[in-house]
Each structure stands twice: as C-alpha cells, then as structure tokens.
Design brief:
The complex is a heterodimer of chains A (158) and B (426).
Chain A (H helix, E strand, L loop, with lengths): L4 H11 L9 H12 L4 H11 L3 H10 L11 E6 L2 H5 L2 H12 L12 E6 L11 E3 L3 E3 L4 H13 L1
Parallel strand pairs in A: 1-2
Antiparallel strand pairs in A: 1-3, 3-4
Chain B lengths: L16 H6 L4 H9 L2 H11 L11 H6 L10 E6 L8 H8 L1 H15 L3 E6 L4 H16 L15 E6 L9 H8 L23 E5 H5 L1 H7 L1 H5 L9 E8 L5 E6 L2 E2 H8 L9 E5 L16 E2 L1 H6 L8 E6 L4 H15 L5 H18 L6 H13 L7 H25 L13
The chains are: A alpha+beta (158), B alpha/beta (426).
Bound molecules: flavin mononucleotide and FE2/S2 (inorganic) cluster.
FE2/S2 (inorganic) cluster (FES) binds next to helix 5 of chain A.
Chain lengths: 158, 426
C-alpha cells in the first residue's frame, strides 16, 4: 500500500466506530489528507479497500468537499478569504501582494514547490479580517503587508 | 445586558473542565438528571420560548417535542457547528473558549429527546475548535458526564466529534445529515422532517451550538427567568458577530431587542475612519440589507422582520460609504454559486446567471435591461428550491437593488464601477 501503516491504522480505527460504516468515509479521508496533503485515485482506492466501500463511492464523497485538494499543492498552501468582510478590509490587495511576492498566480505552485495560493470562502475570522489559512490548519488573522512578509520568511525557513 | 452564553467566556482557561465546573458548570445537567423526566425538560424549554440561534429561529422545545415517543428506533442529536454563514463567528468563540457549555446543553437535549448518541458536527476549517471539543468530550467522559450511567442516573450517551470538510451547504440540517451518513452534502426533500426520519432514517434533532449553550441556564434558573430577558416574543440573548468597516469588531452578546445603533456605535465604536455608514447586513448575507434609516431597529426576531429583514445568524456586516453595492452583490453571489450543492436546477444554474450578469455590470459591460433581468432570475429561483440556499442567494441582489437601484443604473451609464473597494492592505 502507498498509505503508511500509521494512516492505515487510523482508517481502520474509524471503520467500526460509528453506527453505520459509511460515516467513516470523511474521517478516513482526513487521515489520507493529513499524510499526503491531497487525495489521489490510488490513495482513495486503498481507502475504499480498507473500509470495504467501493472506490466510486469514495470518489463521489471526496469530490464534493473542497477541503481535500485532488492534486498536490505547495508545501504551504496559502488560502486567502475573499468573502465580504475580508474583501471590505483589503483581501484583494492581499491576494495581489502574495502573487507579487511569490511570483505565481492564484491556483499555481511556486517552482520550488514551497508555496501555492488559493482563494477560499468565509472562514469565520471576519472580526479579525483580512486573513489567510495555511494548509487548512492555521489561521493568520488581522493581516498587514508586513505580517504577510514575515509569515512568508518564517515558512521559507521551516 | 445579561450574559448567558458568554458569562464565563473571558475567564482564564475556561475551556478546561476543572474551570468550567468551578464556575458552576454541569450543575444544569446534574439537576436535569436528578429532578426531571425528559418530558419535563421539553416542557420547560417550550415554556422558556427559546428559539433556534442557527438562522431559522424555530422554537427549540417544540422541535424536541416532535420526536416520536413510541418509536423503537434509536434517536439522535446533532450539534450544528458548521458555522459558515459569512460574517458569523460566534459558535467558533464558544467552542474555542467555553466548549463545555455547548456540550452540557447537548447532553441535556439528548436526554430530553431520548438520544443515546450525539454527533458534534464542526466545519473542517475550525481546527482549534475541533481540538477543544475533542478534549472536552474526553474530559466529560472521564468525569462521568458522558458514557454509561451518567451521574448514576442510568442514562447513557455517547458523543462523537465529526469534522466537515468545506461545504457551506452542510450547515443546512438535512445536508448535514447526508454528510454524516458518508454522502455528498445534498439537501433532502422535506417532509419527512428530521424529527421523523433524520440520521440513518431515525428520529433526529439538529440544533445550533449557541441554542444548546442556552439550555444549562434555562434548567438551572427556570423558564420564567429566561422569559424575563429580552422581548416578550424573543426572550433571552443573542450573540452578534460584528465585522466590516467598524472600529471594534467582535462578538457581542446582547439582550434581544437591543437597538442596532447601540451595537454599531456604543459597542462597535462606530464606522472606521469616521466615514459615513452606507449599509448593514444584520444577520449574514442570507438576510436583506438595512441602511442608515434603520439604525433604531431593535435586534430581535419580530422587529427585524418588521424592518424587512431577519435576525438570521447574527452576523452583522457593516459597510461604509466607499462600498460598491454591485460589487458587494457580486462577491456574495460568487459565494452562493460556489456553495450551491447542485441538486436543484434553479439554484445551481440561477446563481451562475446572476453572477454573470452582476459581473458584466460591475465591469462596464452591463445593459440597462440587466437590472430587471436580475430581478426576473431571482423570481425564478425564490421558493423553487429544496432548501433555503436558493432563497438566500437572491437576497443580496434583491435588497441591494431595492435600496440602491440608482447605483446599478450608474454602473450601466458609466460603463463600470466608480467606487471600487477603497480599503487597502496596510
Ligand atoms: C444553506 C443553509 C446553511 C445553514 N448553515 C447553518 C450553520 O452553519 N449553522 C447552523 O446552526 N444552522 C445553519 N442552518 C440552519 C439549519 O438548517 C437549522 O435550521 C439549524 O441548525 C437548526 O438549529 P437551531 O434550531 O438550534 O437554530 C443553515 C441553513 C441553510 C438553509
Ligand atoms: S469574510 Fe473572511 S473570514 Fe469571514
């Protein structure tokens, strides 16, 4: 299997946890996403095998949910919220600033594979707008150009 | 102002169970199990007049009462923590800072409806919330508030944290149930309502985080106490999330019936840079906008309906004079188009049409007829979809045209936007 043993164990732990087996699909996909940062046909096939659920049902579910990228992103996937409250406080400027700094457009990955930029809908940080999210994990809020530049430097180093 | 949900929100490390208990937590549950039968709790919540805080405002006790008592099927409670209505971030603060208050409410609700399994469904992006809730659930098991024979009462309840994965529609209660069943989050045709056929075809109640967070105090202090807060028809408090062009954004718990002006100017510190107010979305973009003339409207279910809008989720978005209303509608339509689950044609196709028309207006390619065309497309979506997402999607278009039609016309006459969003990143 391509899935690491740790991920396989996680998926099997979800398998019989819920009143009905298909409820385990999303938690299992989370385990795959955490290992690879995206879902591929191969990893979804293996997920289906572990859960005894047909591959097509896994794909059907996975394709609905936007949090699981279906192709590799940069090591750090920066998603800028461009919904209203963030837009009112400069979100478009933030996207432009990132594109200029990283010399890639939204949806692209930097040649070294470290960064990619995306847009995302409201993440519930409207009171601390504008904001971006790193890898569906960390929120960076109350952003200014200076803060963004510092964040990029820190991420480059890590 | 009374604080119910936020009474301990700023106490240090309130998210830890020791502190929650030290500050009076889990007494509502203890009282419930010691003194009341499930039916008593339903009666008490009915009497309190508590209404859903997730957007629709449905009476909570009534909803619980719809669960059939003679059904042999298992019953389920689902906590709706999908919080994705733009401009809304109140449930996030509850989960991050005082997770146990919602869990205690959920346990009481589960007991009232006879559920032995509860799902706590959190939107996937709320990572810290998920960590706090997961930890809180484990702590509650350790202390005997969850699991078998809770506090020696003979009542059993298991609670599972479940993470969504980026879909606004999964906040709609039937789409949430589909998602929990391991399917695409498509809204279901109602009836059957979840109370009859919900999760795994069994009787189910879906409640918002804030709604449930009100329950422990209602049990402890009584329905009459709750009724004494707020207005006669909208008792209690509501948390408003304030954002946009405002000096002090954030969450504010207010007695129902507090004037909008008080929130914007006294608590929110007024409009950024002393600019003029232009428009306010009072309860998330699914509800019609208000303008300066509405500043004295009271924030409760009835008063907001009277003013032509709704309480919605309590997400208050403030826009100053520099804000283009066509652009505002365009941004929101981009959201609704992206989030339509695709099941109903009017919503799936209509939101794309509306987006395209708004786009050409904003970018100087609009025609005069486009304004009426927008309204016509709206008419063909409203009331013709399975869930309320379709009805919500047309609201920003209809209400911005209602108050700012001349601005739409100006976009046609000037071949584009004269007031692009001014705010720049510092
Ligand atoms: C498109 C759509 C999105 C919704 N999103 C949420 C949400 O994120 N959180 C929520 O509590 N209710 C949401 N609702 C309302 C739920 O369908 C449901 O009314 C609510 O969870 C019931 O709980 P309550 O009675 O405690 O408010 C949404 C409704 C629609 C139509
Ligand atoms: S609008 Fe950006 S986080 Fe809500």
């Amino acid at each position: 299997m391509i899935l690491s043993e740790k991920t396989q164990k996680k998926i099997l732990a979800e398998k019989n946890k819920y009143p009905q087996p298909k409820t385990a699909i999303l938690p299992a996909l989370y385990a795959v996403y955490e290992e690879f940062g995206y879902l591929s046909n191969e990893t979804m096939k293996e997920t289906g095998e572990l859960l005894n659920i047909p591959f097509l049902e896994i794909v059907e579910v996975a394709s609905f949910y936007t949090m699981f990228p279906k192709k590799p992103t940069g090591k750090y996937f920066l998603q800028v919220c461009t919904n209203l409250s963030c837009a009112l406080l400069g979100a478009e400027d933030l996207v432009k600033h990132l594109e200029e700094k990283l010399k890639v457009k939204t949806g692209q990955v930097t040649p070294d594979g470290v960064f990619s930029i995306g847009r995302v809908e409201c993440l519930g940080s409207c009171g601390t707008a504008p904001m971006l999210q790193v890898n569906n994990l960390h929120f960076q809020e109350d952003l200014t150009k200076e803060k963004v530049d510092k964040l990029l430097e820190e991420l480059k180093k890590s | 102002m009374t604080k119910i949900v936020f009474k301990n929100i700023d106490k240090p490390e309130q998210y830890k169970i020791e502190n929650y208990i030290k500050n009076g937590g889990y007494q509502g549950l203890a009282k419930t199990l010691k003194e009341y039968k499930p039916a008593d709790i339903i009666e008490m919540v009915k009497k309190s007049g508590l209404r859903g805080r997730g957007g629709a405002g449905f009476p909570t006790g009534l909803k619980w009462g719809f669960i059939p008592k003679d059904s042999k099927k298992p019953k389920y409670l689902c906590v709706n923590a999908d919080e994705s209505e733009p401009g809304t971030f109140k449930d996030r603060e509850i989960m991050e800072k005082d997770p146990h208050i919602s869990i205690e409410g959920a346990i009481i609700a589960s007991y009232a409806i006879g559920a032995n399994v509860c799902f706590y469904y959190i939107r996937g992006e709320f990572v810290l919330c998920a960590q706090r809730i997961q930890k809180a659930i484990e702590e509650a098991y350790d202390k005997g508030y969850l699991g078998k024979n809770i506090l020696g009462s003979g009542y059993n309840l298991d609670m599972y944290l479940y993470r969504g994965a980026g879909a606004y529609i999964c906040g709609e209660e039937t789409a949430l149930l589909e998602s929990l069943e391991g399917k695409r989050g498509l809204a279901r045709v109602k009836p059957p309502f979840p109370a009859v056929e919900g999760l795994y075809k069994s009787p189910t109640v879906v409640n918002n985080v804030e709604t449930l967070a009100n329950v422990p105090d209602i049990v402890l202090k009584g329905a009459d106490w709750f009724l004494s807060i707020g207005t006669a028809k909208s008792p209690g408090t509501k948390i408003f999330s304030l954002s946009g062009h405002i000096n002090k954004p954030g969450n504010y718990e207010l007695d129902m019936g507090t004037p909008l002006r008080h929130l914007i100017y006294d608590l929110g510190g007024g409009i950024k840079d002393n600019r003029k107010l232009k428009a306010i979305i009072p309860g998330g973009p699914s509800v019609p906008i208000l303008t300066e003339e509405h500043l004295d409207v009271k924030l409760d279910f009835e008063s907001l309906v009277q003013a032509g809008t709704m309480l919605g989720s309590g997400g208050v978005i403030v826009m100053d004079e520099t804000t283009c209303m066509v652009k505002t509608a365009l941004i929101l339509m981009n959201f609704f188009k992206h989030e339509s689950c695709g099941k109903c044609t009017p919503c799936r196709e209509g939101t794309v049409w509306l987006y395209d028309i708004l786009y050409r207006l904003e970018h100087g390619e609009g025609k005069k007829e486009d304004i009426d065309l927008l309204l016509k497309v709206c008419e063909n979506i409203g009331g013709r979809t399975i869930c309320a997402l379709g009805d919500a999607a047309i609201v920003p278009v209809q209400s911005t045209i209602k108050y700012f039609r001349e601005e739409y016309i100006a976009h046609v006459e000037n071949r584009g936007c004269l007031t692009p969003f001014k705010f720049q990143l510092n």
